[in-house]
Amino acid sequence: MTTVLITHPAFLNHDTGEAHPERPDRMRSIDKALAVEAFKPLTRRTASLRDDDKTYIALAHRKEHLTEVSEVAEHVASGHKYIDADTVVSPGTWEAARRAVGAGLDAVDVVMAGDAANAFCQVRPPGHHAESNRAMGFCLFNNVAIAAHYGRAKYGAERIAVVDFDVHHGNGTQEIFWSDKNLFYGSTHQMPLFPGTGALRETGVGNIFNAPLRAGDGRERFEEAFRSRILLPLHNFAPDLLLISAGFDAHHRDPLGGLELTEEDFHWATESLTEVARRHANGRIVSMLEGGYDLTGLANSVAAHVTALMHAGT
User: Fold this and answer.
1) Which residue, of 40, 93, 250, 257, has the greatest Cβ tally within 10 A?
2) In whole angstroms, how far apart are CA 214 and each of 57, 211, 260?
3) Catalytic site includes residue 267
4) Considering the entire predicted model, what is its pTM?
5) How far apart are CA 250 and CA 260, in angstroms?
6) pLDDT per residue as tens digits for the range 162-196
């Protein structure tokens, strides 16, 4: 089976303003990296805009949050509006945010139907900082948490896991999953760093597994933490569906982090997760783009990540 790439030109229209790190050029750099011969076997799909997407957003977010974001983002006529100091909306944001959610739902449909081994969603805005009732950290809706809840509601998946290797802790996913023993969240991330969450003691109901790293940590420490704090409990959890918050700002080139990872480290982590999915979830993986703000580091890391997904499907 193939790997599906899900994206849309609308993601370029989410305008965050001059000098903002979460910028449309991120999409262009990935497009270029995935345009080479090696990625021709990818099945490419456009992210849908669903009439019923608010129903699925409400699985992870409170009604008040959905109302607030829609009132701000849906009615921006020009320029920019700031939800907080980092989180910006523009006239193109509302469609982009809805298609980012739609990409995750599409990806779950594809892998649960057995039409592809796995899927990578090349989307923006990212999502893992968005809490059930709060947009923050460039994120409006928690794309990966919505996709996880959709997998349960639509397909009856009993145990769903999200693994997050972004340099920043996914506080939103942790908060949304916190009290549900059938939802697993595991994260490697730099501490101290925004948003200030992700300590070892944050364990939910025994379903949260944080692996904080220090600035300057590289391959050896990352692999040790990933194996012991993420992969071991993930195998014990035995997910029916595995999702990845695929942030690439732990790359050594990235301006927003201080870890020393390379694209080879993301390839290794992805291969490790595909093995978990093969053993427990019939290979089913949905990966959703989160951070990554150095364009070269981002492009090379996405290429390595998608290559590992493609190899798992052959």
Assistant:
1) 250
2) 34, 10, 10
3) no
4) 0.97
5) 7
6) 999 999 999 999 999 999 999 999 999 999 999 99
